[in-house]
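Newbie here. two chains, one complex. Structure please?
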Amino acid sequence: MSNSITDTLSKLGKVTLFLGQVLRASAPALLRPRLIAQQVYNCGARSLVIIMLCGLFVGMVLGLQGYDLLARFGSESALGVAATLGLLKELGPVVTALLFAGRAGTSLTSEIGLMRATDQLTAMQMMAVDPLRRVIAPRFIGGIIAMPLLAAVFNVIGIFGAQLVGVTLMGIDQGTFWSQMQGAVGLRDVNEGIVKSIAFGVICSLLAVYEGYHTEPTAAGVGLATTRTVVASSVMTLIVDYMLTAAFLKG
Amino acid sequence: MAADPRDTSGPNSVVDVRDVHYLAGKHAIFSGLNLSVQRGSITAVMGPSGTGKTTLLRLITGQVQPASGTVEVFGQDVATLDHKGVFALRKRVGMLFQNGALLTDLDVFENVAFPVREHTKLPEPLLQTLVVSKLQAVGLRGAAHLMPQQLSGGMARRVALARAIVMDPEVLIYDEPFVGLDPISMGVVCRLIRQLNDALGITSIVVSHDVQEVGSIADQSYIIAGGKVIASGSSEQLQHSTEPAVRQFLQGEADGPVPFHYPAGDYHQQLLQLVRKS
């Protein structure tokens, strides 16, 4: 028990130190926007289909459950507000982060891990190229840029899904659905979601590149590192989500 | 034949390893290693598996530091160099990895162009000329558009070779360049090492345990075992060595100073015990 606690703490420390290294390498990496754009495409565009699909269904479920709940109080017309707030503040950023960890995070880890296992990273160092600048930083920054964009797409599709169920299926008035939403949802709620998804972007990208960079250079090592990425990213996302939610409700 | 390796050191040596001790954990890899590499020569470093041949390369390129002793490259003590100094050193040293270590997300052309793009701002036409000429030198100009996954082992190594020479290094280090190659590819790589060395005036260090291949091209060979140089000289000198460890290694004998059996108790005793138990 005490062992696993010290292990967790020392890992936390190592990841933090690594974050420092990556941030230092990020400044020169920012001067090469093409490398970053490529990574935004890699983890963003390739996760787009799964994000849209999941967003649609999460939104539709919200429509059903929200309708059922609100109907008990006779306030079905508030479905638009409920679904939108739930998506913007919670489900959008969190579910996107979990999907990102599973889709983009794992592919980042295994890609970098394979580069480690096949000496590509050492070869770069031997060519006097710092892999932190050339490989790690662009992927880290790319992930941070991609996450809020993906969350935004998720939210839009999710709201559409809720509308599909609420208005088309359950017969809520179209005008009520949208006008209540416009009245009740403020910029503050949108900002909360954006802050959260940027934070999750940092967490998921950092853990993915950390695990990849420190992969044991064997086939088995790559597999283990990929698993650790998903587990660590998901757990950290949910923990930080609680903290941020608490902070926003207080502030 | 264990000639004093300091005989060959001097102003003309590019790499000087003096009395290096290196530990991996508690296990001593090197205990008093001495060797030097002459400018413009091909120097072979041979030895049984696990004798730290790759560690030697890491010492020379500043990836690891010795516990004691000095490693001098171009007259600079590698241990005293900071991060920038090590990177500056590496720009003058090319290295060929065992499996090529080509970047898997770039095609052959971009792999060779990689160091040029990273370190210089050459105009595109000039860069293309440079890359094409290096690919031509290794005979793979026609493969410029292929991805690394589409290459055979020998081709991958030749592309890596083109990449290693694209920045015109003064020293080229080969880590096990012959492992896993068919005889034809082996001959090609062998000839390329010799040609590049002579045509470009590169100093070459070849780490290998393929005695025949490396012996046929090396000007000077070192055999490392037990953390020390046990023999050095030209291939012919080594062939005539009477040292048992050298003979075992060169002839490929199963038993000798390097024992066939992993240390174990008495065989008969163990068999008797097993019989008694049953």
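Moderator note: The radius of gyration of chain B is 21 Å. Strands of chain B lie at 13-24, 27-38, 42-46, 68-73, 76-77, 93-96, 171-175, 203-207, 220-225, 228-233. Thread marked as resolved.
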